[in-house]
Amino acid sequence: ALPGGAAGRDTIDQSSQDAGTTAKLSLRGVRKSFGDNIVLSGIDLDVAAGEMVCLIGASGSGKSTLLRCINQLEPIDDGVVLLDGQDISEPGLDLGPVRQRIGIVFQSYNLFPHMSALQNVLLAPRRVLRRDSTAEAEALFARFGLAAHMHKYPDQLSGGQQQRVAVIRALAMRPEMMLFDEITAALDPELVGEVLNVLRQLRAEGMTMILATHEMGFARELADRVCFMDGGVIVEQGPPERIFSAPELARTKEFLRSVL
Ligand code: ADP
Ligand code: MG
User: Which stretches make up the ABC transporter domain (predicted)?
Assistant: First the structure.
């Protein structure tokens, strides 16, 4: 939180992290540019274990880049990313374990078309963890209501089912936390609900999650905290009921007016 009164503040930070407790994930001063384009200009963020944080903001505000910088798909230019207190942004660090510990699912689910849903899910655990996790994968399919579909090929599944398989594929690596980047954005409206249900279920099971989303209703219902990004920073953050009903900053109000 920033010191001082409300007057003149240009960011509002109502994070739920108590001082002194260790966050599952902490970002401090994270900066990222592509050439002259400053995309993240000093991101501070703490995510507690079991917390669901939603990132909202206009297209181009840096949500995807922030997620990719968290699991080190993009190297950061400055600052630090800590997972359970360990610096995972240190240059030269073996990134395999980092990406196993932090799962990510994208808008484009990219299942291999020549493999069944189950084979898609088993691929990474087999290659990376050298483990046959068939029983575990089957249990994941059952847990997310896809047991009847696990031997089907992607083209025999709806977009919503394919995206749920992509989530299962990420979970099969036994991640400690999950990142979701607009995972319903490419789906027909009638298929969005079944994918959001998976997130609902993961939240109930206590998974730590960060979601970039345009689904404001979902963010309002399920996020523990909403972070509004603009101009390379988290401009305002707080509990969804406050952000959506009483945003304090003009930039937040303007954005919400444009999307709600
Ligand atoms: P959002 O997900 O909020 O729409 P992004 O993180 O995708 O925002 O993009 C933020 C900015 O970073 C945009 O200006 C985009 O063009 C730029 N950007 C993102 N990825 C790259 C990249 N790999 N190379 C160059 N510019 C990029
Ligand atoms: Mg994006």
Answer: 25-256
